[in-house]
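Work through what follows:
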Amino acid sequence: MLRRLALSWALLLVVSAPAAAAESATRVVGGSAAEMDEWSSVAAVYFDGFAGCGGTVISRTAILTAGHCVARSRPKDLSVGTGRRALSDERSGQTIGVAKIFMHPDYRGAGQGDLAVLKLKRPTRAPAAQLSDEGSDSSMTAPGSVLSVAGWGATTPSGHDPGSDMLMEAEEITLHRGSCKRAYPRKFKGSEQICTNGPRIGTGQNSSSCYGDSGGPLMADTTHGRVLVGVVSYGGDRCGDPRFPTVYARVAPQLDWIHRSAGIAP
């Protein structure tokens, strides 16, 4: 557990933010235990055998995650766990090696092009998530929309805990772009990112993804099932601080690149 926590902090990306908390890679705070039938496409990304990020199955042989999770990694150092609710339950699901890493060409750290596709050495049995497209993205992520995030990350606002063995989920509510533009004026780009805060769970505290949830899925519930609209990217130093919303890399604008990298026919 201590090694997994150390790895999560090693993946932390800190950039200066004006007049307050620095921005950082982001686990689920204020959440509840998730059910695998609702998160069947969620994946854990392992670094030398220790879970440090999340991801989403997008084809039988491809995982979508955050670029900053794997930017300094080699495929041989990575593996992916699918179909697994508890990280300690290695008898369930699959653990599969990574054959190749595709970094988004615009990647400049958490905040720009923060996406990567991991090609697997063998197929996963987990189902692929539906991906958001330009035609439906604006309605699914309009201000006030209720979305869902899941991960195995830290469960305290400081992030100073080893994370959850059990997959956790929480609600996120989409904010007007101006909220993130004020908090992260040099990084936030509304056309490529989604700005959210979770419901209030205490004084000065909202539910939120947090350290170790980076790369994990942000989902919208639709009449056709759950749709992947975002990937956990960055947030404030203190998870769930309402002054510093959580930011997700938007899937829809990058759909062509995702399809090409994963080898998915449009």
Notes: Residues 14-34+131-252 form a domain with the Thrombin, subunit H fold (CATH 2.40.10.10). The chain has two domains: 14-34+131-252, 42-128+254-262. Residues 1-27 have pLDDT under 50 and may be disordered.
